[in-house]
Amino acid sequence: MLPIVIDRVSEHHFISSWLKAGNEHGRLLVVDLGMNAGEFSREIMRRYPNTRVVAVEANPDLALASRYSPNLRCYNYAIASENGPVTFGVDRVNSTASSLDLTSDHSETVTVEGVQFSELLQRAEIDGEVIDMLKIDIEGSELELFERTADRVLSNVRQISVEFHAFINPDHEPRIAKILRRMTSLNFHCIDFTTNFQDVLMINKSLGLSRLNQYDTAKLSLIKYTWGLKRKLATVLH
């Protein structure tokens, strides 16, 4: 049986053994929503060379800089609840920071095309394909993504690593709890590697490359608390 091995890239935990096995026997499909400067996508492609990445980045400058990478298609969209224009702020001092807050002194207003997640899959011509990994870091818009995406689409993903933004907006927590209950009902095992939903891994037991048993879930919990202890020690030491 293929063992469950967990790794972490750019603050996102994932099952690396599934990616390794898939990479050895075929071509992986990874979708990176909120690509930013591309650290996550580039590292995944480095570790698993037989990988194609479909990425979305709302910041036009960051999206343009990544269009020249082989095996990576980056779309200058904002993932949104509805298709249509989305206006947000780009920090002129920190080019990797984007926000819907337009009141910052350093914020430059940018408008890009907003698309629903399902629409992105159609435009990228991957609708219906199994996604080996979906990484989500879209500044709070992840709530609408889950709430408005059909079961059949979410069920076609092996694993989802998502940063929810309850650490900025605690009022998001009831909606996050409802999303996690829904994903559990779709046969996902959900585990939060933080205490505020900042690094949540959703594992699709129906599409897994190995069976997720009680030993594996206990192992995931142990990893969660080990990482938590490391974070607390780092805070104390600094």
> Helix coverage percent of residues?
25-40%
Shape: globular
Q: Which architecture does the CATH hierarchy give at level 2?
A: 3-Layer(aba) Sandwich
Give me the strand/helix succession.
EEHEHEHEEEEEHEHHEHEEH
Domain unit count: 1
CATH top level?
Alpha Beta
Oligomer: single chain
What does this structure look like?
This protein is an alpha/beta fold and 238 residues long. It has a single domain (6-81, 116-237), classed as Rossmann fold (3-Layer(aba) Sandwich). It is built from eight helices and 13 strands. The strands form three sheets. Strands 5-4-3-10-11-13-12 form a seven-stranded mixed β-sheet. 34% of the residues are buried. Mean pLDDT is 88; it is low at 99-103.
Kindly summarize this structure in a few lines.
The protein is an alpha/beta fold. The chain is built from eight helices and 13 strands.
